[in-house]
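Follow-up to my post from last week.
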Amino acid sequence: MEVVITSSPDEIAQLAADAVQRLIESTDRPVLGLATGSSPLSTYRELIERHRDGRLTFARTSAFLLDEYVGLPPGHPAAYRTFIEHEFAEHVDLPDDALYGPDGCSDDLAHESVAYEQQIASAGGIDLQLLGVGSDGHIGFNEPASSLGSRTRLKTLTDATRADNARFFGDDVDAVPRHVLTQGVGTILEAGHLLLLAAGESKAGPIALAIEGPVTAMVPASALQLHPHATVIIDEPAAQALGHADYYREAFANKPPWQHI
Ligand code: F6R
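User reply:
Got it. Predicted complex:
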């Protein structure tokens, strides 16, 4: 795992956008995995800016959502598809039919989960998966105790995650759905490159556990330790509980120029 400690959230966005751009420029039909929430927002803004400047096209790209709430009608402002449309897809030239997400309103959620896995496989798998981390160590909506081999399926959110996400529901925790469909940890681990982004002091605990703690289903983000190409890009406040921060800084500063993130 590579740990990159940056001096600002803006630098996180620059480095993450560089990785996305390199993928798009080097691949015929790139496939992105998109996280929602606050962590990737500045990266999406940077990608939009590069597109507007004519530096980046998403015309050959397809994109898969990490997760979706169950029961929010299409177009609901807090639905993850709506979020990605507003914060990213509408502002770039990603083809309309190239944005995929699990249908949280399906009347057969088990079937929908299997079908979503098949859609990812039909696209050739996800090349680069953007991730954030929850305060309880979740990735996607794989809450603690999620199987590290899990596939896309229905999960129940913890009260802590529902409280964290109430800000997207007018601070009304009761409006946050209890259930979600999420790519499994095993699904996420099959992406070619995992890029976990985190900024701010509130991420310091889960980041330290994910990087330096044991691999455990109780901290689903620790599964990144099993992946051959996982990059964690964080700012100083999110790095403050790491025991080996000096080593990560030194390794990144002395990286051979040909070796990208
Ligand atoms: C979002 C997702 C979640 C978030 C995590 C962190 O699609 O799957 O795992 O990445 O809850 O959320 P933020 O970035 O809002 O702190």
